[in-house]
């Protein structure tokens, strides 16, 4: 699992790219997506949907709740 902070909004997604099962944790984050650092597929942080090739399948996303200083994730 990978927890991302995009301008204060927290997302929890799978850390595994659906294309070739490489990790996403060094990927660039911008405009609601994360880019796989290996071949550049981008995934929507909210839905997990693949936004461009070579990935075609989505990645899992997890429900997040922020309470006070705690981040709770439904996994
Ligand atoms: S491993 Fe992520 S796009 Fe290929």
Give an overview of the whole structure.
The protein is mainly β and 75 residues long. It has a single domain (2-74), classed as 3-layer Sandwich (Rieske Iron-sulfur Protein), CATH 2.102.10. Helices cover 0% and strands 40% of the residues. The chain has strands at 2-6, 9-13, 29-30, 33-35, 42-44, 61-67, 70-74. Strands 1-2-6-7 form a four-stranded antiparallel beta sheet, with no helix packed on it. It has a three-stranded antiparallel beta sheet with strand order 3-4-5, with no helix packed on it. A hairpin with a 2-residue loop joins β6 and β7 (70-74). The protein is elongated. The structure holds FE2/S2 (inorganic) cluster. FE2/S2 (inorganic) cluster binds at residues 17, 19-20, 22, 36, 38-39, 41, 54-55. FE2/S2 (inorganic) cluster (FES) is lined by residues 17, 19-20, 22, 36, 38-39, 41, 54-55.
Summarize this structure briefly:
It contains no helices and seven strands.
CATH level 1 class label: Mainly Beta
CATH architecture: 3-layer Sandwich
Secondary-structure-derived class: mainly beta
Q: What portion of residues is helical? A: under 10%
What percentage of the residues does DSSP assign to strands (E)? 35-45%
**SS element count, helices:** 0
Counting DSSP E segments of at least 2 residues, the number of strands comes to 7
Taking the alpha carbons of the first and last residues, their distance comes to: 9 Å
C-alpha Rg (nearest Å): 12 Å
Instruction: Find the CATH topology.
Output: Rieske Iron-sulfur Protein
């Amino acid at each position: 699992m990978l927890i991302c902070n995009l301008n204060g909004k927290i997302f929890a997604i799978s850390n595994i790219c659906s294309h070739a099962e490489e990790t996403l944790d060094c990927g660039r984050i911008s405009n609601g997506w994360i880019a796989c650092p290996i071949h550049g597929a981008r995934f929507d942080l909210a839905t997990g949907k693949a936004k461009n090739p070579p990935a075609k399948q989505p990645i899992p996303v997890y429900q997040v709740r922020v309470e006070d200083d705690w981040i709770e994730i439904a996994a």
